[in-house]
Amino acid sequence: MKQVVIIVPKGYANLSSVTGAFQILNRANGYWQKMGNRPMMQVSIAGFVTELKLDDGFFSIHPVNINDLKKTDLLIIPSVSHEYDRVIKENAPLISWIKEQHQTGAEIASICTGAFLLAATGLLDGKTCSTHWNAAADFKRLFPNVDLQTDKLLVVEQGIYTNGGAYSFLNLMLFLVEKYFDRQTAIFCSKVFQIDMERNSQSPFAIFQTQKNHGDELIDKAQTYIEANLAEKISFEHLASKLAVSRRNFDRRFIKATGNTPVEYLQRVKVESAKRTLEKGRKSIFEVMNEVGYSDDKAFREVFRKITGLSPLDYKAKFSKETAGVAGSLGLT
Questions:
Q1: pLDDT range class, residue 46, cuts 50, 70, 90
Q2: Cα(121)–Cα(183) distance, integer angstroms
Q3: Percent of residues, the chain, with pLDDT higher than 90
Q4: Which one, of 162, 100, 106, lies nearest residue 132 by Cα?
């Protein structure tokens, strides 16, 4: 029987990612036994803390002592506080324990920002992972040797599994259920918990952050200019000259400050503006395209899909107020 441990770090753990993982795996185990099989796993919640109070004390977790565990086959790291430096510092013993368990054969799955604790072990160096798109800047700052791909909902790396943000961990749980049990059990859990098994990207849910806390005043001016002139054809050669800096130096400073090339930044700002307009639902795709400075509908669709994973039309159908109103009138909300 596999020993599965949901880890409780010191400081903060997202309650839903602990209880959700616990409930889904136990429900899968119950269904597995109902089908005439022996229990597949025993799920424990453990940590170096005896109690963790969450959400202003309304909830608390009472994990078992992690030192009492003799064997682990799968470790699950829940989402953690956004004070990443503090969380890593306070959980040094837990981070060492996670690394030791992996070295003795345990697989590891991290939920959302739990990837920060996992990356702190060094086990992700030179590998690919995912985490919440909103935590990308901090993750890249702390772990430059990890290939972060926030568009991915789930990344598999030699017995290490990471997933995107928030409730996308439900898809990670279905993946683990299928891996440890079988496809039929995963489908059962998908139906019982009403989780869409086909989700594979968090790109449609990402909100582009305009990265203004870098301290480079010249690049801040460039960003402000870009954001104020989305409908215009921007020449970065001209913009660099206007800011009295060479194009090469402009590009270098822009990438260092924002993590994007000027062209990538312009595309992302245009698409983010287009997304907000599409969500309101009042304008056509053609009107939105022109509003953000595109005259070629093919180019607009390609850039939009590259960033969001959806076509402009599909995005509007998924998120617009008009669509929500129609669904409501049909009793579908």
A1: very high
A2: 32
A3: 73
A4: 162
What value, to the nearest 5°, has the Cα angle with vertex 316 and ends 313 and 321?
155
- Domains and their CATH numbers in the chain: 2-201 (3.40.50.880), 217-324 (1.10.10.60)
**What is the distance of C-alpha 131 from the center of its chain?**
4
pLDDT tens for 209-255 read: 677 778 899 999 999 999 889 988 999 999 999 999 999 999 999 99
The residues, any chain, with a CB within 8 Å of residue 317's CB and separated by 6 or more, are: 323
- CA angle, residues 72, 130, 203, in degrees to nearest 5: 140
* pLDDT surpassing 90 at residue 9: yes
* pLDDT band, very low/low/confident/very high, at 55 (cuts 50, 70, 90): confident
User: What are residue 11's phi and psi, to 5 degrees?
Assistant: 105, -65
CA distance 57 to 118: 27
In the predicted model, what is the mean pLDDT of residues 128-132? 95
Give the pLDDT mean for 118-138.
95
Closest alpha carbon to 72 in 39, 99, 38:
99
Residues in contact with 3: Cβ distance below 8 Å, sequence separation at least 6, in sequence order: 41, 42, 44, 69, 71, 72, 73, 74
186 contacts: CB under 8 Å, gap ≥ 6 = 28, 174, 175, 177, 178, 197
Burial state string for 228-263 with b = 16 or more CB within 10 A and e = fewer than 16 = eebeeebebeebbeebebeeeebbebbeebbebebe
Nearest CA among 287, 332, 329 for reference residue 312: 287
